[in-house]
Design brief:
Layout lengths: L33 H37 L22 H12 L12 H16 L2 E4 L4 E3 L2 H11 L33 H16 L1
Antiparallel strand pairs: 1-2
């Protein structure tokens, strides 16, 4: 039965002792085998060539499939020109006004031509006209909208209609009466753009 002793030096099947290596110099005395480096570089080049060929073939197949789906190329599908060669165009107020006039004729909903701040300011201005002035709700029936301040005065004088009390079942253990929290705001606030416009108007009014 074979036994293994770690203290005995290992021998090759041929019976030769392992070659002793002199480590006193601190470096190898023989050169690196060139054959191993050549084999590695050759395998790497073959791998790159195969991957490149496969990628090119797959790209051609996808391009051919898209051409079959989209149909033949036309002048509308041609490559667009490089607009970067035109550089930055100078601002032209007259052209901007013309574009604004043209876009106003487009059916709604229209795309925004800016960040939307002016549209929100215009919306709030229209809301202010309804909230702060008398306007017709239905002129044929004689219905008129009144300013919100006047409506609040009438509600304070007359009060709101009170619903009849509803009998509730007795609360169970752990239940409590619901409490209505007072809202922190009225639900309407000016945007930063509108506040900046108000400041500009105040400064201009002060100069005048």
């Amino acid at each position: 039965m074979p036994t293994h002793n770690s203290n005995e030096p290992e021998k090759f099947e041929s019976g030769h002792e392992p070659e002793e290596v002199d480590t006193s110099l601190g470096y190898e005395r023989s050169d690196v085998r060139v054959s191993g480096v050549v084999v590695f570089l050759t395998a790497l080049a073959v791998f790159v060539a195969v991957v490149g060929a496969l990628s090119y073939g797959v790209g051609k197949a996808i391009d051919a499939h898209m051409n079959r789906e989209d149909g033949p190329r036309s002048k509308w599908a041609s490559q667009s020109p490089d607009v970067r060669q035109l550089g930055n165009l100078a601002s032209n107020p007259e052209m901007q006004n013309k574009v604004a006039e043209i876009t106003q004729s487009f059916p709604t909903p229209r795309l925004l031509t800016d960040d939307g701040n002016q549209d929100v300011a215009d919306l709030h201005a229209r809301e202010d006209l309804l909230l702060e002035h008398y306007t017709w709700a239905d002129e044929a029936q004689g219905k008129v909208r009144i300013p919100i301040e006047r409506a609040m005065e009438l509600i304070a004088q007359r009060g709101l209609p009170v619903a009849p009390a509803v009998e509730h079942a007795p609360l169970l253990s752990g239940d409590h009466e619901p409490e209505v929290a007072v809202p922190l705001t009225s639900g309407f606030a000016r945007t930063g753009y509108e506040l900046e416009q108000e400041q500009v108007q105040k400064v201009e009014a002060g100069r005048q």
